[in-house]
TrEMBL record:
GO terms for cellular component: plasma membrane. Residues 9-244 form the ABC transporter domain. This is Branched chain amino acid ABC transporter ATPase. The keyword Nucleus does not apply. GO terms for molecular function: ATP binding; ATP hydrolysis activity. The keyword Nucleus does not apply. Keywords: ATP-binding, Cell inner membrane, Cell membrane, Membrane, Nucleotide-binding, Transport. Gene3D superfamilies: P-loop containing nucleotide triphosphate hydrolases.
Length: 248
């Protein structure tokens, strides 16, 4: 059990409406230090909106957000990321025309504002090594195979050495070998760099194998929370995924 008693992030009644649609409804989410927390749910369940809310890209209609013990409700994304909460986007974001090295360097900018070039270069090299990107450092990012491009997105975020790393569907389009290797990277950065991870992912097998706890969203609401074993047998979760109504 990795939980050491501290809560890195807490949302209370977090809600986001778009007109008549409630994308995230009254969400009470806790992320505990040292865990890999999965956030799952069918398409449109509110996972990316939750990411946008906790990283400041979208302002809540109601509710509060506390990150590392501070009330950050309404804060701008840069202010939240400087605290150590860094996120990736569902659709890979990096500069296609730039080398992998320069993309990863961009990821160090906010967190290493006072560092010199040698220190930054060391961070880039270490990050590339962990993600298996060393052979690609001088390649133009946009020309690389899809699986490598996904890793570049993660590398940019991890280069900041976040306290809390939020990954939105990082495994999309990866083959089975790449998925296995990437899950090992998640475990390694959690264990060696004290990096807590929030993982949105549709790959159920991967989520079940890597996550300590899982939160299930459905229609913007928290349907269930528990260990992978608990979630796997939760009747409401099974019903939501099968698209059937479950009156309980
Ligand atoms: N900017 C927006 N304007 C209007 N509606 C939005 C906006 N962003 C999200 N929504 C709606 O909010 C709901 C939740 O969307 P969200 O992208 O958070 O779901 P998701 O769980 O990430 O889905 P997916 O698995 O497909 O990525 C959806 O019905 C979506 O259409
Ligand atoms: Mg999404």
């Amino acid at each position: 059990m990795r939980y050491n008693g501290s809560t890195l992030l807490r949302t209370t009644g977090l809600t986001r409406r778009y007109g008549g649609l409630v994308a995230v409804s009254n969400l009470n989410l806790d992320i505990r230090k040292g865990e890999i927390l999965g956030l799952i749910g069918p398409n449109g369940a509110g996972k990316s909106t939750t990411f946008n809310l906790i990283s400041g890209f979208v302002k809540p209609t109601a509710g509060t957000l506390e990150v590392f013990g501070r009330d950050c409700t309404g804060w701008k994304p840069t202010k939240i990321s400087r605290m150590g909460l860094v996120r990736t986007f569902q659709h890979s974001s990096y500069m296609r025309s730039m080398k992998v090295r320069d993309n990863v360097l961009l990821g160090t900018m906010h967190s290493m504002a006072s560092a010199g070039p040698t220190e930054r270069a060391h961070r880039v090299a270490e990050t590339a090594e962990i993600l298996g990107l060393t052979p690609y450092l001088d390649e133009q990012a946009g020309t690389l195979p899809h699986g490598i491009q996904r890793l570049v997105s993660i590398a940019i975020a991890f280069a900041a050495r976040p306290t809390l790393l939020c990954l939105d569907e990082p495994l999309t389009g990866l083959n089975q070998t790449e998925v296995g290797a990437t899950l090992d990277v998640f475990r390694q950065i959690r264990d060696e760099f004290d990096c807590t991870i929030l993982l949105v992912e549709h790959n159920m097998k991967a989520v079940m194998s890597v996550c300590d706890r899982i939160v299930v969203l459905h229609h913007g609401q928290q349907l269930a929370t528990g260990t992978p074993a608990e979630i796997r047998k939760d009747e409401n979760v099974i019903a939501a995924y099968l698209g059937k109504r479950h009156d309980k």
